[in-house]
Predict the 3D structure of the following.
Amino acid sequence: MMNKEELDTLDRSILRILQEDGRASYSEIARRIGVPESTVRLRVKKLVERGVIRKFAALINPFKAGYSIVAFIAVDVEPGRIKEAVEKLGKLPEVDVLGIATGAHDILMQVTVRDLQELEDFLIEKLGRIDGIKSTETSILTSVRKWGYARVF
Protein backbone atom coordinates (compact mmCIF):
# COMPACT_ATOMS: atom_id res chain seq x y z
CA MET A 1 0.00 0.00 0.00
CA MET A 2 1.26 3.47 -0.87
CA ASN A 3 2.05 6.04 1.80
CA LYS A 4 0.88 9.63 1.51
CA GLU A 5 4.52 10.77 1.29
CA GLU A 6 4.97 8.85 -1.97
CA LEU A 7 2.68 11.28 -3.82
CA ASP A 8 4.53 14.28 -5.18
CA THR A 9 3.10 17.75 -5.74
CA LEU A 10 2.11 16.96 -9.33
CA ASP A 11 0.25 13.79 -8.32
CA ARG A 12 -1.57 15.70 -5.60
CA SER A 13 -2.55 18.46 -8.02
CA ILE A 14 -3.94 15.96 -10.52
CA LEU A 15 -5.86 14.10 -7.81
CA ARG A 16 -7.26 17.33 -6.37
CA ILE A 17 -8.67 18.30 -9.78
CA LEU A 18 -10.09 14.83 -10.43
CA GLN A 19 -11.79 14.85 -7.03
CA GLU A 20 -13.38 18.21 -7.83
CA ASP A 21 -14.46 17.04 -11.31
CA GLY A 22 -13.92 13.42 -12.31
CA ARG A 23 -14.87 14.31 -15.88
CA ALA A 24 -12.05 16.83 -16.31
CA SER A 25 -10.11 15.99 -19.46
CA TYR A 26 -6.38 15.41 -19.42
CA SER A 27 -5.95 18.56 -21.50
CA GLU A 28 -8.00 20.60 -18.98
CA ILE A 29 -5.97 19.22 -16.07
CA ALA A 30 -2.71 19.92 -17.94
CA ARG A 31 -3.78 23.49 -18.67
CA ARG A 32 -4.73 24.12 -15.04
CA ILE A 33 -1.45 22.87 -13.60
CA GLY A 34 0.85 23.95 -16.41
CA VAL A 35 2.25 20.64 -17.68
CA PRO A 36 1.93 18.76 -20.98
CA GLU A 37 -1.17 16.60 -21.49
CA SER A 38 1.07 13.55 -21.99
CA THR A 39 2.45 14.07 -18.48
CA VAL A 40 -1.05 14.08 -16.99
CA ARG A 41 -2.02 11.00 -18.99
CA LEU A 42 1.08 9.10 -17.80
CA ARG A 43 0.65 10.20 -14.18
CA VAL A 44 -3.02 9.16 -14.09
CA LYS A 45 -2.12 5.80 -15.64
CA LYS A 46 0.52 5.24 -12.94
CA LEU A 47 -1.86 6.35 -10.17
CA VAL A 48 -4.37 3.76 -11.38
CA GLU A 49 -1.72 1.03 -11.70
CA ARG A 50 -0.43 1.76 -8.17
CA GLY A 51 -3.94 1.60 -6.74
CA VAL A 52 -4.05 5.23 -5.63
CA ILE A 53 -7.02 5.76 -7.94
CA ARG A 54 -9.26 2.77 -7.29
CA LYS A 55 -11.76 3.57 -10.02
CA PHE A 56 -13.57 6.40 -11.74
CA ALA A 57 -17.22 6.66 -10.74
CA ALA A 58 -20.10 9.09 -10.32
CA LEU A 59 -20.87 10.11 -6.75
CA ILE A 60 -24.62 9.59 -6.39
CA ASN A 61 -26.86 11.46 -3.98
CA PRO A 62 -29.01 8.56 -2.75
CA PHE A 63 -31.83 10.88 -1.66
CA LYS A 64 -32.18 12.13 -5.24
CA ALA A 65 -32.01 8.55 -6.58
CA GLY A 66 -34.95 7.09 -4.66
CA TYR A 67 -33.27 6.07 -1.40
CA SER A 68 -34.43 7.66 1.84
CA ILE A 69 -32.38 5.82 4.47
CA VAL A 70 -28.64 6.04 5.10
CA ALA A 71 -27.73 4.13 8.24
CA PHE A 72 -24.62 3.23 10.16
CA ILE A 73 -24.68 -0.23 11.64
CA ALA A 74 -22.29 -1.44 14.32
CA VAL A 75 -21.94 -5.22 14.44
CA ASP A 76 -20.66 -7.47 17.21
CA VAL A 77 -19.42 -10.90 16.18
CA GLU A 78 -18.48 -14.10 18.00
CA PRO A 79 -14.73 -14.38 18.64
CA GLY A 80 -12.82 -15.75 15.68
CA ARG A 81 -15.59 -15.06 13.15
CA ILE A 82 -14.98 -11.44 12.22
CA LYS A 83 -13.26 -12.07 8.88
CA GLU A 84 -15.96 -14.57 7.88
CA ALA A 85 -18.70 -12.05 8.72
CA VAL A 86 -16.91 -9.22 6.86
CA GLU A 87 -16.57 -11.40 3.77
CA LYS A 88 -20.31 -12.13 3.75
CA LEU A 89 -21.31 -8.53 4.54
CA GLY A 90 -19.10 -7.26 1.73
CA LYS A 91 -21.22 -9.16 -0.79
CA LEU A 92 -24.44 -7.38 0.20
CA PRO A 93 -25.38 -4.63 -2.28
CA GLU A 94 -26.86 -2.38 0.41
CA VAL A 95 -23.47 -2.04 2.13
CA ASP A 96 -21.58 1.07 0.95
CA VAL A 97 -18.72 1.18 3.48
CA LEU A 98 -17.50 -1.74 5.56
CA GLY A 99 -14.60 -2.15 7.93
CA ILE A 100 -13.24 -3.99 10.92
CA ALA A 101 -13.14 -1.58 13.84
CA THR A 102 -11.55 -0.99 17.20
CA GLY A 103 -13.56 0.13 20.18
CA ALA A 104 -17.02 -0.92 21.28
CA HIS A 105 -17.92 -2.89 18.12
CA ASP A 106 -16.17 -5.36 15.84
CA ILE A 107 -17.49 -4.13 12.49
CA LEU A 108 -18.86 -0.78 11.30
CA MET A 109 -20.72 -0.25 8.03
CA GLN A 110 -22.78 2.27 6.13
CA VAL A 111 -25.92 1.00 4.45
CA THR A 112 -28.24 2.74 1.98
CA VAL A 113 -31.81 1.49 1.47
CA ARG A 114 -35.02 2.82 -0.04
CA ASP A 115 -37.13 2.94 3.11
CA LEU A 116 -37.65 1.63 6.64
CA GLN A 117 -39.19 -1.61 5.37
CA GLU A 118 -36.10 -2.31 3.27
CA LEU A 119 -33.92 -1.56 6.30
CA GLU A 120 -35.95 -3.97 8.41
CA ASP A 121 -35.67 -6.65 5.71
CA PHE A 122 -31.92 -6.06 5.53
CA LEU A 123 -31.52 -6.39 9.30
CA ILE A 124 -33.69 -9.47 9.64
CA GLU A 125 -33.28 -11.34 6.37
CA LYS A 126 -29.66 -10.55 5.57
CA LEU A 127 -27.77 -9.66 8.74
CA GLY A 128 -29.85 -12.06 10.81
CA ARG A 129 -28.78 -14.98 8.63
CA ILE A 130 -25.03 -14.44 8.86
CA ASP A 131 -23.52 -16.96 11.26
CA GLY A 132 -21.48 -15.47 14.06
CA ILE A 133 -23.24 -12.10 14.33
CA LYS A 134 -24.23 -11.59 17.96
CA SER A 135 -25.80 -8.15 17.86
CA THR A 136 -26.18 -4.97 15.85
CA GLU A 137 -26.77 -1.32 16.65
CA THR A 138 -28.31 0.82 13.93
CA SER A 139 -28.26 4.61 13.68
CA ILE A 140 -30.22 6.32 10.89
CA LEU A 141 -29.00 9.66 9.58
CA THR A 142 -31.76 12.26 9.64
CA SER A 143 -29.84 14.39 7.16
CA VAL A 144 -26.49 14.41 5.42
CA ARG A 145 -24.55 17.67 5.59
CA LYS A 146 -21.42 16.55 3.76
CA TRP A 147 -20.72 13.85 1.19
CA GLY A 148 -17.02 13.17 0.97
CA TYR A 149 -14.43 10.83 -0.35
CA ALA A 150 -10.97 9.71 0.66
CA ARG A 151 -8.86 12.82 1.13
CA VAL A 152 -5.21 12.40 0.23
CA PHE A 153 -3.97 15.95 0.77
Summary: The beta strands are 69-77, 95-100, 107-113, 133-140. The first helix runs from residue 9 to 20. The first strand starts at residue 69 and ends at 77. The two ends are 16 Å apart (CA to CA).
